Amino acid sequence: MFRAIADVLRQIGGAIATVVTLPFRALARLFGGASSSARGSRA
Q1: What stretches of 1-43 show up as alpha helix (H) in DSSP?
Q2: What is the Cα–Cα distance from 40 to 9, expressed in whole angstroms?
Q3: Dist. CA 10–CA 18, nearest whole Å
Q4: 19 near 11, Cβ under 8 Å?
């Protein structure tokens, strides 16, 4: 019983973590590409 509840909470937490980190990953990729293309200038 408690194991099933903990499993559901873990799945919900994983989904929330994925949704929260996705925009930051996109931003990091965006800024990473911009910084790699403008390598001469200081960031």
Answers
A1: 2-37
A2: 47
A3: 12
A4: no
Q: How far apart are CA 6 and CA 21, in angstroms?
A: 22
- Could you tell me where the beta strands, DSSP code E, fall in the chain? none
pTM for this one?
0.53
CA distance 10 to 17: 10
Residue 25 has which token pair?
Answer: 């990953």
User: What are the tens digits of pLDDT across the range 4-29?
Assistant: 999 999 999 999 999 999 999 999 98
Which amino acid makes up residue 15? Answer: A
**Other CB atoms closer than 10 Å to residue 34's CB: what's the count?**
10
